[in-house]
């Protein structure tokens, strides 16, 4: 009977580490909805299912590029406003000419760098910091 008593007494202590996060869990607001879950309130229909970023979370250079787009320029790079082909198929499929790209300057870079804002014919705005490998839908505020 004594071994059973020792086991039952020690059992909670043995299970405790399995239930603990060890203080390493960092709570973070998910930026993409789970499959089948509704998108966060205020997410435009064109951005549903995508990773999103608010305008205020963008680098200051990206916010400035968005301001230039809204004003219609002038743009600092000749390629700004040219058709983005979406050859990587990472944005929703659209007819050629639907998307246009704009450079987001990278401080210290002697080239255009890898950062871009891609616009759609309507209100769509996408940000890529890695030259079209990944995109985030830019949502307000």
**Share in β-strands:** 15-25%
Rg for CA atoms: 23 Å
Q: Taking strands numbered 1, 2, ... along the chain, how are they ordered across the largest sheet? A: 1-6-5-4-3-2
Mean pLDDT across every amino acid position: 79
Shape, principal axes of CA atoms:
globular
Order of helices and strands: HEHEEEEE
The total strand number stands at 6
**Which blocks of ≥5 consecutive residues have pLDDT under 50?**
4-8, 10-39
Q: Specify the number of helices.
A: 2
Determine the structural class based on helices, strands and strand pairing: alpha+beta
List keywords for this structure.
hydrolase; 2 helices; nuclease; alpha+beta; six-stranded mixed beta sheet
Task: Give structural notes.
- This protein is an alpha+beta fold and 141 residues long.
- It is 21% helix and 16% strand.
- The protein contains two helices and six strands; from the N terminus they run αβαβββββ.
- It has helices spanning 2-19, 60-71; strands spanning 52-54, 82-84, 99-103, 116-119, 125-128, 136-139.
- It has a six-stranded mixed β-sheet, with helices on one face.
- The longest helix is centred in the first third of the chain and has 18 residues, at 2-19.
- It is globular.
Would you summarize the structure shown here?
Keywords: Hydrolase, Nuclease, Signal. 21% of the residues lie in helices and 16% in strands.
